[in-house]
């Protein structure tokens, strides 16, 4: 006997739950199919950060703005803060970034701390060297460098937001169902039903609408359906270090080292030259090390040379033994006192960043009756609400803003399409 589902959303991460919730808000009763526990893959392994600041990409900024506009009803459980992101590095590079992001608000330049608006909710504050060390005294060793403090930005509880979406979905008549998506069956060329494995049995579920939001499973699923879009998956890892002495200031914003660096001293490199896995990390590395306080410790993140996988077979990658130390060392230029934590064993986990070549999401129709929402590489938490709402509106024939159409998967079928590199440059 074939089961009938009004709307089937495959994937119980933040993106899938958001799409299902907003479909439910429009009168459907969606089912969310998830092989693992909900919110247990990439949604659970993220930095949980958000920012409106997307230099060079107005469409991504519009997507995040839409998400932030939709966040207030969930604020009690998501608990967003407004500490901002603080990029630290050479002034000319920071100013160039700011000038590429007019959407983020006015650029304010400060030669001294007296003009710095500590409680500003929005805008870009470029702190010249003297002002930087006055406003953030724990960066006092960074002579000659500046800081770019961007807001609105900060972090929130991805689990809190996800569970609120799930509870809201259930209140609207939707369901979360445990099972594995195997593919679709077509009639007359149109996808009519999904093949699903539940408790060892295969079933056919006919649907009115199918949304693929499989996270790291998306590349494999798209290939199986005959839509081999240019996706890759990158394992990214974060490390949580206990910090009872407060070496990472508890009041800090999300700190980002915006300069290339070498994380090993010459004598260390000499000792490690024979280590094949470490060899790529022994030379100059790109910017992007970042961290933030978390509970009685801090999160450290630095994935300077992520490898690419075409189609991950599992939900979560296994972190290399050195992932935590690499992340910690990446923060040394910002907070030299963290050197005392070398040898401390952190808690390390991570997820897959599924991405397109230009690091823009996939959002829109794949074929008649089938929609896709994914490739939210490194910004799924901050973009989930806006992306889910836009997909639901588009799928049900409502008006869709131009920024959402810019993410349609059909762009890769247009010979004239030239992917932009801006968003890819600013992925952390």
From TrEMBL:
Q: Write down the InterPro entries for this protein, in alphabetical order.
A: FAD-dep_OxRdtase, FAD/NAD-bd_sf
Q: Which Pfam families match?
A: DAO
All copies of domain FAD dependent oxidoreductase, residue ranges: 7-394
* An example Gene Ontology molecular-function term: oxidoreductase activity
- Tell me which UniProt keywords the record has, alphabetically: Oxidoreductase
Look up keyword Oxidoreductase and say if it applies: yes
Task: Give Gene Ontology CC terms.
Answer: cytoplasm
Q: Can you say what this protein is called? A: Glycine/D-amino acid oxidase
């Amino acid at each position: 006997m074939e089961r009938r589902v009004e709307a089937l959303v495959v994937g119980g991460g933040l993106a899938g739950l958001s799409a299902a919730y907003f479909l439910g808000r429009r009168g459907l009763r969606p089912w969310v199919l998830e092989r693992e526990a909900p919110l247990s893959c990439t949604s659970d392994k993220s930095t949980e950060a958000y920012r409106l600041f997307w230099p060079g990409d107005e469409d991504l900024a519009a997507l995040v703005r839409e998400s932030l506009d939709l966040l207030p009803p969930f604020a009690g459980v998501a608990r967003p803060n407004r500490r901002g992101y603080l990029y630290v590095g050479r002034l000319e590079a920071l100013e160039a970034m700011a000038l590429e992001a007019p959407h983020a608000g006015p650029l304010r330049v400060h030669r001294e701390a007296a003009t710095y608006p500590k409680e500003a909710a929005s805008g870009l504050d470029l702190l010249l060297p003297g002002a930087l060390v006055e406003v953030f005294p724990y960066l006092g060793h960074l002579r000659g460098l500046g800081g770019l403090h961007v807001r609105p930005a900060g972090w929130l509880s991805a689990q809190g937001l996800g569970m609120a979406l799930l509870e809201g979905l259930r209140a609207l008549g939707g369901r979360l169902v445990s099972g594995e998506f195997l593919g679709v069956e077509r009639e007359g060329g149109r996808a009519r039903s999904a093949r699903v494995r539940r408790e060892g049995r295969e079933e056919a579920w006919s649907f009115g609408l199918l949304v693929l939001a499989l996270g790291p499973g998306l590349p494999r699923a798209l290939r199986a359906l005959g839509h081999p879009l240019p996706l890759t998956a990158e394992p990214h890892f974060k490390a949580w270090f206990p910090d009872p002495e407060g070496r990472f200031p508890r009041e800090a914003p999300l700190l980002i080292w915006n300069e290339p660096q070498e994380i090993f001293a010459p004598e260390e490199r000499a000792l490690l030259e024979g280590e094949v896995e470490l060899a790529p990390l022994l030379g100059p590395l790109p910017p992007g090390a970042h961290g933030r306080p978390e509970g009685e410790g801090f999160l450290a993140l630095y994935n300077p040379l992520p490898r690419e996988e075409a189609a991950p077979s599992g939900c979560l990658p296994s972190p290399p033994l050195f992932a935590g130390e690499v992340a910690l060392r990446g923060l040394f230029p910002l907070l030299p006192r963290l050197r005392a934590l070398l040898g401390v064993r952190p808690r390390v986990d991570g997820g897959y960043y599924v991405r397109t070549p230009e690091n823009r999401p996939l959002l829109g129709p794949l074929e008649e009756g089938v929609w896709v929402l994914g490739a939210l590489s490194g910004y799924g938490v901050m973009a989930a609400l806006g992306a889910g709402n836009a997909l639901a509106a588009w799928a049900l024939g409502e008006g869709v803003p131009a920024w959402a159409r810019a993410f349609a998967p059909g762009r890769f079928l247009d010979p004239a399409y030239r992917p932009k590199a801006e968003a890819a440059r600013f992925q952390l």
